[in-house]
Amino acid sequence: MPDHPQPLHPQPLHPWPLRDQLLIVTPHPSGQLPAQVLRQMLGDDLFNTPKREAFLRRIFLDGDAYTDLLYSLPGARHVQAPWSRFAVDLNRDRDDRVDNGVIKATDFDRQPLYPPDTQISEAEREERLRRIWDTFDDAVGAELPGARLMIVGHSMASHGPKLGEDTGTPRPAICLMPGTEDAPTFPRQKWAALKSAAENAFADVIAASPFTRVTLGEPWSVDTLSHNHSRRSGVPAFGIEFNAGLHLKGGQPVDAAMRQMNAAFAVFADAALELVN
């Protein structure tokens, strides 16, 4: 039999060998609620299918819809939340009790999530946090050993909602959250390079949309998950927000835009990983 020449440059076993050093966390894509929480919110309408489905659709779209898909990256590590942020907001501190805190009473339009006079007892609150917040926090911590970078993926409304600090304010196309000057979660000397990498990777996405600018720290500078886990582990981390208007129209996903955004994110994530390697 004739000899078969070996390739001069053997292909790696994994096509993206460095991506195993990257952890991508998506805390808000789910529109699902535990049955007991859904029952608290809907009462007798739990068994009214049109009302239940409409409510869950509202919850889904008021979260970070489709971010699990937008930030999906072959070869990387992923931790994705199974439950809606309106059960427990995993990007809040466990003891955050403000109106936009870890357990919310309203959606982002300040529409009540529960019937009037609903009271969540301290025991019930603790049980919900133990089952959902603690479990997710442990899952993120378990994936960090050996990682060189953590990216926390979000989406944001095109304008500041009623429940927030920038109500009515137009938002940029993309916001990067690398921490603050005195408490950076991503190396301060590399912020400018990170922003440049995002501008280059997403240039075509932004050019095809009505939204402009990649920002650092506008409207937010700190991602809570990045802050807490980088402080504990020493792994650099940052949050990223996509303007939902880039990939949603009338509450429906725009497939071509989502495909383009995901491809651009792959380029950006690889560049961000290079910055810490």
For this structure, the quaternary state is single chain
Sheet of most strands: 6 strands, mixed
Fraction in beta strands: 5-15%
| Terminal CA distance | 45 Å
Low-confidence stretches: 4-9
pLDDT averaged over residues: 94
Q: What does the overall shape look like? A: globular
Description:
The protein is an alpha/beta fold. Helix content is 35%, strand content 13%. The protein is built from eight helices and eight strands; from the N terminus they run βαααβαββααβαβββα. Helix 5 (191-201) runs antiparallel to helix 8. The radius of gyration is 20 Å and the shape is globular. Mean pLDDT is 94; it is low at 4-9. The strands form two sheets. Strands 2-1-3-6-4-5 form a six-stranded mixed sheet, with helices on both faces.
Please outline the helices and strands:
Blueprint: E1 22-26, H1 35-42, H2 49-62, H3 67-70, E2 77-80, H4 122-143, E3 149-156, E4 174-177, H5 191-201, H6 203-207, E5 214-216, H7 224-233, E6 237-243, E7 248-249, E8 252-253, H8 255-276
Parallel strand pairs: 1-2, 1-3, 3-6, 4-5
Antiparallel strand pairs: 4-6, 7-8
Please describe the structure with a list of short key phrases separated by commas or semicolons.
alpha/beta, six-stranded mixed beta sheet, about 35% helix, two-stranded antiparallel ribbon, about 280 residues, about 15% strand, 8 helices
